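Justification of computing resources. Each target in the renewal requires a structure prediction run like the one illustrated here; the chain below, 380 residues long, is used simply to show the kind of job we budget for.
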Amino acid sequence: MPMPVQGICHRPLILPRASLAAPMPGYNRRLISPPFESKPPMYTLARQLLFKLSPETSHDLSLDLIGAGGRLGLNGLLCKAPAKMPVTVMGLEFPNPVGLAAGLDKNGAAIDGFAQLGFGFVEIGTITPRPQPGNPKPRIFRLPQAEAIINRMGFNNLGVDHLLARVAAAKYKGVLGINIGKNFDTPVERAVDDYLICLDKVYAHASYVTVNVSSPNTPGLRSLQFGDSLKQLLADLATRRAELALRHGKHVPLAIKIAPDMSDEETAQVAQALIETGMDAVIATNTTLSRVGVEGLEHGDEAGGLSGAPVRDKSTHTVKVLAAELAGRLPIIAVGGITEGKHAAEKITAGASLVQIYSGFIYKGPALIRESVDAIAALR
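Resulting structure tokens:
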């Protein structure tokens, strides 16, 4: 996903400078002022340069900057660290309940950099067994008026072996999720083979593993969320996980990431399948195919998955349906449309145990992490 330079500052580049003079209602001025306000204009220059680039180019360059900052140990200086708010979910201890969603760091290029920004956990990927280029460019589109992004990346990544090399090189010792998928040219009926290849390889290196069956940008992938296809996939994963647990002497939780575009009945059926097959968590949700909230906007009719503010209510509704069906038997990790701290708190109130941010981080920067932790802490 695109990561313009606002991903490493406290305010989105889409806001004119003058708009910061009077903070928006409900916002703490300190949270939206950039960390380099009093610093030399080098950062401002870099920001202006990056934002003239395409979303994908600026994402790649910003990822390089965050990665470099992580290697130098500088990213912690960009913003005040979030308050400690330890939680235990899936048998894992998280320093706070706000994580980085998969997709921003597909190849594990900036694990240390993102961790230093204050995330309670980091999820990398989606990764596939073999490297693949993804869909043709352009394939990412900013819709700043709606605080939204449309992407049709198509699981572009350098392959699971490359990702594991990056994990080995990282110093991060916190909770690391690895998100796995299938190669685009693997037939859907053989998708389980790709998931098992990835599971075998990442098992010893992941705190938890996310099974992505909900990207709209890999043909046929979402069909794996339904009926016998889902049950068979989950059963095969559960069997392999039991074998790997014996081999490695540890139980690595499995989370399933689902789409927001299912009916309530379909969502409830997924919940039952997760319980029956012994899965450890559900991540709700991926991007949506809906275009509600972006009608008439530039790029609003581009193909791909829509993320950001327009998916918020849909994702939160899915969390509520899951919570009612799961009744505490399985934790929910909520992601989708968190652009303010209060949205993270809403996800927790709806029944989630953890939250992840993605598009909101692109638009608001690392201040959103602390803001979200504070809002969740205020619920206690």
